[in-house]
Amino acid sequence: MTSIGSSIATIIGGGSGIDTGALVTQLVNATRAPREQAITSKQSLNSTRVSALASATSSLATFSTALTEAMQNANLAGQPVSNDPTIVALSTLPGGKPQGLPAQIEVQQLAAAQVLESVNLPARTDPVGLGTLTLTTASGAKTITIDGTNNSLDGLAAAINGANAGVTASVAVDNRGARLIIKGASGATNSFTLTKELTDTADTNLSRFTFDGTTGGMTRQQSALDSIIKIDGIEYRNNTNTVDTALPYVRIDLNKAAPGTLVTLATNEPTSTVKDLVTEFVSAYNTLRTALNAATAPGTDTKSAGALAGDSGVRDMLRKLSALSTTSLAASGTYRSLSDIGVKTNQDGTLSLDTTRLDAAVAADPSGVAQMLNPSVSTASTPGIAKVVADLKTSVEASGGSIAASKSKYDKLAADYAKQMEKLNEDMTDYEDQLSKVYSAMGTKLAALKATQSYLTQQIDVWTGGSSKN
After folding, report:
1. Most buried of 34, 229, 235, 294 (most Cβ within 10 A)?
2. Residues 111 and 225: beta-carbon distance below 8 Å
3. d(CA 470, CA 467)
């Protein structure tokens, strides 16, 4: 609108003594300033609340994630160990806490695979004979055919492997020559035979590579055996040297047979304690709660209110956080909530820990307390503290949740304030146009008046001059 102001100044000029362009600008600014300040103050406050809400949500998410990771990494039950790993080694299986320990184990026999060895031939490419052999394993019988395309130790080994019967054939070569080696899977049920029909008219040389379970052209260098162990006097037989069904959530690796030797299986000291875990939880929670308390603090004579004072979404979050100490974490047992082991909610919402009470609970039922805090499998009735906090976070952030509702409210306010500012800009443009028209009309009238004044002055001067001559 500068051009309009300039035109006014041109019409009136300096003769009127009024800078109408500046006057219009001053009037518009004077009208605009209080209204604009009111809107920008609301926008600034709303932006502060949006930022504070995002910070509160992020802090809760960080707390939940850190708690989940701490629980996943916590080893409250210790690890299963053996006092002689050269005989037996132990490890934990996923899905639960090792059970059945301590125990005594005796490794009477290791599982083994049947191994056959053939006679030596001068070279691995030497012919083995034409015809067919029958490979019989636990999975059934397979026909092994040797013809002009594969008549060698390498060809025979490839034909056996190609049958996919659960055995592996290879050719061993040393300074004595080359020979066929066949190895099956471990376990007594995985023995196998490689036979040639007595009525078969094929090359008799193939008989060098037969074994009927007792005798044949090949020599059995190792028999198929089950592992045999005794745990606390109870015998277990398996077809491998890895036993994962004898003790719940414990993997037993058998490294050496030692009949008559008892090996102790037990649990070592946990790498983290329940007390450490609860103390860390209370400290992290209080850091979160103190920040939220500051953000929601009401204003007083000496300090201004927190950015989220009165926000219903954060109030709901605080209410749910305050209930953590009494929330049920286990469906049964003496200890079912944090309050049962000495965690109390203070008046300001922070937590305090009675370490004497916690120590007594751990001493009385260490497994029960650990299971309550960090169950092997989280369920609806035994969720564990990490799951409860994660569910709390999900509930307030979900669509329709309290935090989501607050965010939606602030987003709507931001959009409304933007529209108010846009409307103010339009109103002030119209107001400036209106003032410019008023002062333009005023300038026209003033110009006419000044022209009349000038004419009258000239006439008076003429009249006055004429009287003096007479």
Report:
1. 229
2. yes
3. 5
Please answer whether residues 342 and 363 qualify as being in contact, where contact means their C-beta atoms are separated by less than 8 angstroms.
Answer: no
Helix (H, G, I), strand (E, B) or coil at 204: helix
Domain 113-222 -> CATH class: alpha beta
How long a stretch of residues is the chain?
Answer: 470
Show me where the domains of the chain are located. 51-74+272-296+307-401, 80-110+226-267, 113-222
Q: How far is CA 104 from CA 232, 240, 262, in A?
A: 5, 20, 6
Q: How many Å apart are CA 286 and CA 302, to the nearest integer?
A: 25
61-85 tens-digit pLDDT: 999 898 888 887 776 666 789 999 9
Do 97 and 77 meet the contact criterion of CB atoms below 8 Å apart? yes
The pLDDT, as a whole number, for residue 1 is 44
Please choose, from the candidates 121, 73, 467, 78, the residue with its C-alpha nearest in 3D space to the C-alpha of residue 271. Answer: 78
Over residues 124-140, the pLDDT tens digits come to 999 999 999 999 999 99
Strand partners, 368: none
> Of 147-156, 161-170, 316-325, where does mean pLDDT reach its minimum?
316-325
User: Per residue in 184-200, pLDDT tens?
Assistant: 999 999 999 999 876 65
The pLDDT of residue 417 is above 50? yes
Question: Dihedrals φ, ψ of 324, to 5°?
Answer: -60, -40
Which tokens hold the place of 187? 């376990």
Mind listing the pLDDT tens digit for each residue in 224-270?
999 999 999 999 999 999 999 999 999 999 999 999 999 999 887 66
Dihedral (Cα; 188, 194, 198, 199), 10-degree rounding: 130
Report the distance separating Cα 384 and Cα 377, nearest Å: 9
Residue 44: which residues within 8 A CB-CB, separation 6 or more?
none
From the list 79, 100, 78, the residue with the least C-alpha distance to 91 is 79
Instruction: Mention every residue, 6+ apart, whose C-beta is less than 8 A from residue 319.
Output: none
